[in-house]
Amino acid sequence: GAVVSQHPSRVICKSGTSVKIECRSLDFQATTMFWYRQFPKQSLMLMATSNEGSKATYEQGVEKDKFLINHASLTLSTLTVTSAHPEDSSFYICSASQGGDTDTQYFGPGTRLTVL
Amino acid sequence: AQSVTQLGSHVSVSEGALVLLRCNYSSSVPPYLFWYVQYPNQGLQLLLKYTTGATLVKGINGFEAEFKKSETSFHLTKPSAHMSDAAEYFCAVREGFSGGYNKLIFGAGTRLAVHP
Prior knowledge:
The structure holds two protein chains of two kinds. By secondary structure, chain A is mainly β. Chain A has no helices and eleven strands. The model of chain A has no long low-confidence stretch (mean pLDDT 91). The radius of gyration of chain B is 14 Å and the shape is globular. The interface between A and B is medium-sized, with 28 and 24 residues.
């Protein structure tokens, strides 16, 4: 149980284009989903938190107009990187939580974004 | 504010030897603590977690961790290392339960190498 998928696993795009990454909880309902960014050989940096049906909460320094997050259902959240630039190249990881005080975050396998 | 310090960015052990990965935390509230493992180009997998109750927590793949409040530590151990244990390990503390969701603060990670 508690499986989270991400699609695509790897994407290469040209500078200036937009890329959408999907995060799905396959066997549970995720009231909250988290989006992280991980640079090579570094830890995870939380970008934003989204609750189903409401606007995402972005961490300080994260551009909400550049990283659009939508959490339209209890099993799906999307991250859209708009007008991507080479510096946006990174490993993006989502996690999902059922909510509650002691609940655990379950992580997706990650998406490797390369912007040329 | 909560924080996590992982001592040693790289740890190398021989196959069959004891694995000890160190984690110290800072928290103004009773902490919820987690250990995650990340294999190359993959997301994070939960190894174990401490919320309340028994301070010695057993996880998957033979790992365990002990919560020591007096030392503010949550070190991860495994009696006998296996080649398949080679990976990146992250310790995390829950920042707090606000707005109905948990926010994790991650340590910098420890890369475990296992030699034959």
